[in-house]
Amino acid sequence: MNLEGKVALVTGGSRGIGRAIAEALAAEGAAVAVNYRSSKGGADEVVAAITAAGGKAVAVPGDVASWDDAQAMVQQTIDELGGLHILVNNAGISKDALIFNMDPNDWLDVMRTNFGGVFNCTKAAIGHFMGERDGAIVNISSVMGERGWIGESNYSASKGAVNAFTRCCAMELARFGVRVNAVLPGFVPTELVEGLVEKDGGKGILRQLPMKSFGDVSDVARLVCFLAGPDSKYMTGSFVTVDGGAAAMLGTGAPL
Amino acid sequence: MASPEIQTAVQEAVVGALGVGEDEATPDATLMDDLGAESIDLLDILFRIERSTGVKIQASDLGDYIQGGMSEEEFGDGSGNVSRKGLEHLSRVMPQIDADEYEGKLEAEKVISHFTVQNLADMVAERAGAAAG
Question: Quick one: pLDDT at residue A253?
Fold first, then answer.
């Protein structure tokens, strides 16, 4: 187990990719604070699953879009689990619409949670990391932060902001022994993206993916464990895609 | 006067954060002008000092310490230079500054560039004493 003795805070850890990350970090030996905004039941389930598997976890309420909540989440983690070494900024929302039809509040909400949440939780945690001269931040971004997709301008922009922030944050914190990296998942079926696959079971998307398959939450979770742990000790400011080749592709090309 | 432990801790923090030699980080060396410290370097120095001595100093405390809690109006003389009252305070926290010699000649904004390794050690010692007292 690579993360024995470490404490991790996973934002949006009650479901989807966040849940898989929380459970995977715990399986590597980390004590995990499972943050949730509205799904207390989901967070309690994750805590119960981790505890049943012999790990240690607590549920931590809070909305990452709120600076006050972010500070409280970090403090609760330190108080209840005795420290903080790993921050996984995972919490995210989507409100897909064509720009022509988009309500201006829909880009603000997405930006406040997806980027504002990364900013708030990072700022709340780094004083502790810098003092300890130890810490790993893993931002769950998206291939959408690097590429375009019709109907996801707000989500894509928020993830592009996360990527830009990841670079600057990595630069500012490197000298303090704190690493900051981003994971860019492609299509991983969770509640968040169900709208994209509901029409045709996702066939339209699968045709466009080099690997012709969707990812699994565990694909993302395993990468997060790597970036949070000692095996990636020389990595900071990196973006790692886990997307079945989606971001590498320009098109399928003319068959030879 | 800073204890030898604090003196050493401050020098080690400066050397570690700035990547300068021990022969460069002398008590009289100014952090910004002589040693080239930027704001992120100061932050690093303060975190290193906190780690080795337990004395917590925020970057914003540095300005307050230099200015002695005076308002801008009180610390300045209206033309951008440090006032007589400000200089008298400075001669206590930064004893290398002679109030008579610098009267009307020291720009308030440039005071920080005169802040030395020794001045920082004295500040840490004062804070350590305050915490202990």
Answer: 81
Q: For residue B83, what is the DSSP state?
A: P
Q: Given B17, B40, B51, which is nearest A131 (Cβ)?
A: B51
Of the candidates A201, A193, A207, the residue with the CA atom closest to the CA atom of residue A251: A207
Confirm whether A71 is domain-assigned: yes
Which residue segment(s) compose the domain that A57 sits in?
A: 7-188+217-241
Q: From CA A18, how far away is CA A15, in angstroms rounded?
A: 6
Inter-chain touch A175–B44, beta carbons under 8 Å:
yes
- Partners of A133 on chain B (C-beta within 8 Å) are 47, 51
Give the pairing of strands A178-185 and A7-10. Answer: unpaired
Nearest Cα to Cα of residue A161 among A139, A193, A185: A139
Q: What kind of fold does domain B4-132 have according to CATH?
A: 1.10.1200
CB-based contact (8 Å) between A133 and chain B?
yes
Amino acid at B39: S
Could you tell me the mean pLDDT of each successive run of 10 residues in chain A, 256 residues long?
96 97 98 97 98 98 98 98 98 96 97 98 97 97 96 97 98 98 94 74 89 95 98 98 95 78
Give the A window 113-132 contacts with B, CB below 8 Å.
Answer: 130-131
- Predicted TM-score of the model (pTM): 0.92
User: Is A193 among the domain residues?
Assistant: no
Q: Give the nearest chain A residue to B53 (CA atoms).
A: A131
Query: Rounded distance, CA B68 to CA B112, Å?
Result: 13
Average pLDDT over residues B14-28: 97
Residues B43, B47, A60, A169, CA torsion sign:
positive
What's the pLDDT tens digit per position in A5-51?
999 999 999 999 999 999 999 999 999 999 999 999 999 999 999 99
Q: Is residue A51 part of a domain?
A: yes
- How far, in whole angstroms, is CA A84 from its chain's centroid? 17
Q: Which residues pair with A33 in a beta bridge?
A: A9, A58
Active site includes A155? yes
So what's the pLDDT on residue B55? 95
Residues 159-188 of A with CB under 8 A from B: 172, 175-176
| Domain-located, residue A249 | no
* ipTM of the complex as predicted: 0.84
Neighboring chain A residues of B46 at a CB cutoff of 8 Å: none
CATH code assigned at A92: 3.40.50.720
Question: For chain A, how many structural domains are there in total?
Answer: 1
